[in-house]
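Q: My collaborator sent me two sequences in one message, no labels, and asked for predicted structures for both. Can we handle them in order? The first one she listed is below.
A: Yes, handling them in the order given. First sequence, followed by its structure tokens:
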Amino acid sequence: MWLFAMFDLPVLTRTDRREYARFRKLLLKQGFFMLQFSVYARYLPSEEAAEPHRNIIENGLPPTGQVRLLAVTDRQFGKMTVFIGKKRSAPEAAPVQLMLF
């Protein structure tokens, strides 16, 4: 499954920009990557694996702005239509999972 973090945060003051940077670094530290501006995604093996990340993000929310977390299945993510300019592109592939014995 994929967990999306979508956010609109104010960047008018120096404090706002600092909070924006802190939140973005939190997402990167949690293994998210930028899909688009203010839209970050992370691949996870299950809904249960997403819960700790949701809690960490909730605890690190900035004092202002809007943040949304959305979980979609790998199949739903694969059905996404992506355009770069006017050219159609395939969505990002799920990362290869390592198996340890």
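Q: And the one she listed second?
A: Here it is, processed independently of the first:
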Amino acid sequence: MSQDASARTITVRYFASIREVMGTGSETLSTTAATVGELREALRAAKGDAAAQALAPSKAVRMALNQDMCKAEAVLKEGDEVAFFPPVTGG
């Protein structure tokens, strides 16, 4: 199966400390990323040093696709919603 290189419009939501770093809670963008993991890397490259640190592979960042927890391999399609957030800690 070949990967689709055409752009798709998606909504990206950021939560907690990632939201602080990104300076927004959500944004709509056009991406050629085929998976959530590729989107994470594209955001790291496009958003500057602080975002690159917040979304770094070494960071424990949880990801959701259309409000379902997902792995980096989850495939993106037009109109999807992706969320990035740090792990939740209990008290």
